[in-house]
Amino acid sequence: MVVISKTFSIPQFYDSHAIAPLKDLVFLDIETTGLTPATSSIYLIGAVYHQQMEWHIRQWFSDSLNSEQEILEDFFSFIKNYQVVVSFNGETFDLPFLKKCAAAYGLNTDVLDNIRSFDLYRHLRPVKTLLQLENLKLATLESYLNISRLDQATGKEMIAVYHDYLETGDKRLYQVLLLHNEDDLKALPQIMPLLSYLDIFRSEWTLAGYSLSTASSSLTIVVDCSVKVPVAVTRELPLCRLSIRANQIIIEIRAFVGELKYFFDNYKDYYYLPDEDRAVHKKVGQYVDPEHRVQASASTCYTKKSSTFLPLSHEDMFDLYKEEYSSKQLFTEYIADPDFILAYAHNVLEDALRCAVPVPSEEAQEAPPELFS
Fold first, then answer.
1. What is the pTM of this model?
2. Is 122 found in the same domain as 160?
3. Does residue 278 belong to any structural domain of this protein?
4. Domain boundary among 197, 224, 247
5. 65-114 tens-digit pLDDT
6. Phi, psi (5° rounding) for residue 281?
7. In what residue span(s) does the YprB ribonuclease H-like domain sit (predicted)?
8. What is the DSSP letter of 368?
9. Of 350, 133, 131, 128, which Cα lies nearest the Cα of 231?
10. Paired residues of 60 in beta bridges
């Protein structure tokens, strides 16, 4: 067994306190000779952690066919000092593989059962739609954030390199194996800022400004957030154009200028006046000539208003207007008031969250990335 330790630096890091204090996190990635513990072995375990204001990397390398148990024992002794293990697809591959290999040697795996898992692949799945990513492979996420890496090989290619190393003891092959694992490990803390695309929708918002363009009949709302995203993104959604830049959300939405209907509840309490094309409460309608009034129905129990209206994603505290009773699209009247605008922004952003950052159902989960890609 060979244990390698070194320090490194990264340009920025995600505020992990919502997960755990940074000192309690350990990032994990393993390298194996195959996909199944029954026929394969672990030849390299890598961990990244933050200590004394520095980032550290530690690797346990199996330099012979007989040292797998030794690296497992030493790694288990190390990891018991941490509260959360952060991985990429580790809940599907790395952690189960470690447990099965350890069990084969009769090792106690309680340390893995007692540590909380935070699988970045699982948590980042919803941002694929928002960022319009082709897939969720680690290399794709690195590319999106312009994270450079020296190693360009795949995990599958490393299997052959490891076997060649065992046969030859070539130090150059040894360095290639370590570098592949090292680049994967260093990428894990560096892709964590992608979580901010989820956090920003749950952050505290304050209204930075708004403007209604009479020429284009469009409303622009700018919201300041307590979270900052690493790369600006813009999406065209069914209800609005959504842009996220640094710590701001910008909503551009087309207003409707014209006449809409406000439908009263309890239509049985209203008369419809065909000559005036509106409904009035029976307390008022009782004074209208019976020849000019009829019992209102749900679809005729309305009053009309001409104004500037904004589309809503769902019913809320606002007065609701529609083109017709059966119309699905809801509107509310535009009010040039900061409190109204911020409340309206919340309504629209709830819809944006569903459209741009969908949560995959258990039945429609994306397949995990290829383990040796």
1. 0.86
2. yes
3. no
4. 197
5. 889 999 999 999 999 999 999 999 999 999 999 999 999 999 999 999 99
6. -65, 150
7. 26-194
8. P
9. 131
10. 3, 45
